[in-house]
Amino acid sequence: MAANKKHGKSFTVINALQLATLLALLGYMEFTVDTGRVSKVFLASPTSIVKEAVKIIGNGLLLKHFWVTIGEVLTGYSIAAVIGIGVGLLWALFPKFESFLNVFCSAIMAVPKVAVLPLLILWFGIGFKSKVVLIVLFSVFQILYNTITGAKQCKSEYLQVSRVFNASKLQTIFSVVLPASLPSMFNGLRISAATALTGVVFSEMQAAKAGLGFLLLESQQLLNTSRMFFLIILVTVISVLFVKLISFIEYILCHKWARV
């Protein structure tokens, strides 16, 4: 009991120190910019970031670009998840299929995404399609290889029982292999969730007419440091929330399988 109280007290102290550090950093930023010690071109004060955020939210500029980026991320990520999970489960059930495709997937995964972006723009244009394809390339392989790793960890006894009961391939996939691969599969989904948004912002900064990356590049060209800081913070928050959402879905599904 005393140990629990001690642990709770140390946790509170750590949180207080974290908050104090953050406030000190924000206060230092405010002081150095307001006093002119650091130019507003190189650093933005917290109050200027908030003012810029209120401005672009109020005039509708942020929402216009926000929904473009979110639409690209959700579409590309969903396609990557379907392909990665589907192919991973097929590889687990058909090892020869994995032997045939693995070398091609490894080669595509090794291609630098920065190098392939000009080709995607040439093939699909600078709009929605090229961004979706790039997100798929950023995300699909983490999901695929984590899914196949989890599927291969399925105990052989479970597969033998499914054969004894004459389970079909689909029944084996959804009742045996899929539950066994969930922890590893969701690990891949979490990793790719963070990289998906990073990938689309990067691609929008290279060639786009809308999106958070385009808005970030425009802010850089206009030397609007306050807007740049706000957009970087916003992208970071969205990435964290996206990963938390995947973790929440994992919690629900894993509890469902645990009760079965």
Q: Which of globular, elongated, flat, extended, rod-shaped describes the shape? A: globular
Along the chain, the helix and strand elements come as HHHHHHHHHH
Q: What is the mean predicted local confidence, pLDDT?
A: 80
**How much of the residues is beta strand, in percent?**
under 5%
Which structural class should the secondary elements be placed in?
A: mainly alpha
Q: How many H/I helical runs?
A: 10
Q: Alpha-carbon distance between the termini?
A: 34 Å
Radius of gyration: 23 Å
DSSP strand tally? 0
Bin the helical content. over 70%
Q: Characterize the largest beta sheet: strand count, sense, and whether it forms a barrel.
A: none
Low-pLDDT stretches are: none
Please tell me about this protein's structure.
The protein has helices at 2-34, 46-58, 61-93, 95-110, 113-124, 128-152, 156-164, 169-206, 212-221, 225-259. The two termini are 34 Å apart. It has ten helices and no strands. The protein is globular and about 75 Å long. With 260 residues, it is an all-alpha fold.
